[in-house]
Amino acid sequence: MSFSASVLTLYPEMFPGALGLSLAGRALEAGTWSLETIQIRDFATDRHRTVDDTPAGGGAGMVMRADVLEKAIDHASPEGEARPRRLMSPRGKPLTQARVRELAAGPGAV
Which domains does the chain have, with CATH numbers? Predict the structure, then answer.
């Protein structure tokens, strides 16, 4: 197995989900790649396992707590590990087939 994906999520039970029904799911079953889900709440320190907070500038909505995310990311990608960290965001670059091929050729991603 050469490619390993670690997914930080509040809903690990959603994985592999529909992905498990695709060609990628078949490859996962065959052991061609591995998928690890990491529950972000496991890194919260309060008794309610709080992972979000109100925005610093006020306003509507919630934001993820940086201290909790930092611990989760450090757990998923220990110092010295070569896997790149990827954040899926609507503001980022589109995930193209060429980029997926490039990532698949590497050691994996967090």
Answer: 3-109 (3.40.1280.10)
